[in-house]
């Protein structure tokens, strides 16, 4: 396994693969890897085969964090990440320091961004106004450096995957994007590097996101005509979440899984997404109703 | 020479070249080709060699025109363009219709843009607020469809070349950008597809841009300490341009050729850019002082 830390070095390697017509599978991450990330790596390997190359990027991207967010304390453990990647059969880790990705940004000399203006508006985009602009920009950069044939994103960040998919389509990136299912702990909590922030008291309460999703599914299943008013169901879930003393709902939304357009009537096949603070930790999750 | 009109067809072809490690030279144009364009094609050929591929795109990009601008009447002559490309040894013309480049744009289903926020602010960006966003977006798309090793832009649109160069650097596009010199008519008028709009009375007056540039050079050359106050020189050029009855100055700017930052003192090596309406035709030009 090779570890690459410069942008030029990564692109040189990628252009070499490209000139040889090799398939490249890419899993972009912010590190602090867990079983969810590893499942994406395994998916990438299946997609490119044994003869292909699997690249994992580990980069905590500053442009997707707002000033008050957890950039500085975002968990990092490169040694452990590196061991996990090696065990999972990763060929290359791309782990650039900030000045490699945004040279001159400190002096205002970095000035190009990719913006998606429709799917990025609601939910995470409303809660974190500059977040998706940072995501689309860094993903565009990483795509140009790694030159993947296929990129694998996790479904846990449903809106992120949809926004990146739209960017790939609109800007004609020459690659295929695959969205792989969310990995969960035994009690339903979606795997996330941020779960590490949860205290022993908070951890069991964090399953409220999963329980809220099950409640929504049950409500629709039990509805006489197979539909429930979104507003009423949101209120019900908000009340359920409020039963956990450490939990505070940020948003809950029901929407079309492809267009992300909110629905007024929740039926089978609608997508549910929620963001909940558990203590000071903000968790997101989503699922098909 | 091959003519490709679909995005998928162009990208398929480009990926084939890529897998074979072929060099690809790319000249993006809006068509209605003149000797300036052909000089860019020749430059591209020299850069990729006989074994390489030269692609010219012909696409009048709607997203870089404001509603009141000349999109609908922009001159088009594909037959003539095609003959000129063939004669110049072009291998592929990529000439997509709008729905290939912006599918769903009419119904609001296109939503991703590339924005450059510093170099694109002044001059053309100030005069045409959404212009560069359209340029960077379409150029990013074309780069992803043609997958060039090297792209050749003309120096006549100096700010455009600088903005695209910044985009290539910031977003790590895997290609080299070359800026080739402006081609001029015998009397100094920069070649432009828009020169066609000029009436017989306007055509000789259009040389005022070239004459203004010569005047600026002379002023700096004759200055005792090699420097002239930009404000005074702008006034002088404005007065010179006003001597032509059909001419109306839009802007004149002196700036650093790399950063595009305006300079207060004009010295040798500064860049001068101007935009002048001659009748209803808006012409731009620029040159090193």
Model description:
- The structure is a homodimer of 289-residue chains.
- By secondary structure, chain A is α/β, with parallel strands linked by helices.
- Chain A folds into two domains: 179 residues, HUPs (Rossmann fold), CATH 3.40.50; 96 residues, Pantoate-beta-alanine ligase, C-terminal domain (Pantoate--beta-alanine Ligase, Chain: A,domain 2, 2-Layer Sandwich).
- Helix content of chain A is 37%, strand content 21%.
- Chain A has a six-stranded parallel sheet with strand order 1-4-3-2-6-7, sandwiched between helices.
- In chain A, a hairpin with a 2-residue loop joins strand 11 and strand 12.
- The longest helix of chain A is centred in the middle third of the chain and has 16 residues.
- Chains A and B meet through helix 1, strand 5, helix 6 and helix 7 of A and helix 1, strand 5, helix 6 and helix 7 of B.
- Strand 5 of chain A pairs antiparallel with strand 5 of chain B.
Q: Output the helix-strand order of chain A.
A: EHEHEHEHEHHEHEHHEHEEEE
Mean pLDDT of chain A: 96
CATH architecture heading of the largest domain in chain A: 3-Layer(aba) Sandwich
Helix content of chain A: 25-40%
Oligomeric organization of the protein chains: homodimer
**Secondary structure tally, helices of chain A:** 10
For the record, the count of structural domains of chain A works out to 2
Annotated CATH homologous superfamily of the largest domain in chain A? HUPs
Please give the radius of gyration of chain A in angstroms: 19 Å
Report the top-level CATH class of the largest domain in chain A. Answer: Alpha Beta
Which regions of chain A are unreliable across 5 or more consecutive residues at pLDDT < 50?
none
Note the gap between the termini of chain A. Answer: 41 Å
- Number-wise, the strands of chain A total 12
Shape of chain A: globular
